[in-house]
Amino acid sequence: MLYTILAEFTVLLHFTFILFVIFGSLLVFKFPRLVWFHVPIALYGMTISFFRWICPLTPLENYFRTLAGEQGYEGGFIAHYILPVIYPSGMTTGIAISMGLFVLIWNIIMYGILIYRHKHR
C-alpha cells in the first residue's frame, strides 16, 4: 500500500513538474525571483523532450510500482500517461520535438513580456 501511494505521489510530482516547465513563467509575473528556479527547470524539461530522454521520475515511479507488486511500464511519463489521451497511437520523435519547441517558444514569449514590462516601469 505504501509503495502504491509513493508511486501515485511520484506521478503527481511528475505532472506538477511538467506544468511548471510549461507555465512556470506565468508565476514569474507574480514572483519575479522564481525566474532563477524556473529557467533551469524549463531548460532541463525542454532538453528531455528534444533528446527523448526519460525523466528520472519515471524509473522512480516504476520502482515503487514494482515494490508494490504492480507492473512498471516502458518509455517516459508523457508517452505513458499523456500521449495516449492526446495521440492514441503513441509518441514520435516529431511530436517530442514539437512539444519541446512549444515550451521553448511559450517561455520566450512570456519572458519577453516580463523583460518588456520590467524595462518600461
Main attributes of the structure:
121 residues; mainly alpha; 5 helices; elongated
What would you note in describing this structure?
The protein has 121 residues and is mostly helical. The protein has five helices and no strands. It is 78% helix and 0% strand.
Helix and strand succession? Answer: HHHHH
Number of H/I helices: 5
Q: Helicity, in percent?
A: over 70%
Which percent range describes the beta-strand content?
under 5%
Q: Average the pLDDT over all residues and give the rounded result.
A: 85
By secondary-structure content and strand pairing, the structural class works out as mainly alpha
Head-to-tail CA distance between termini:
54 Å
User: How many β strands by DSSP?
Assistant: 0
Apparent shape: elongated
The Rg value, from CA coordinates, equals 16 Å
Largest sheet: none
Unreliable residue runs: none
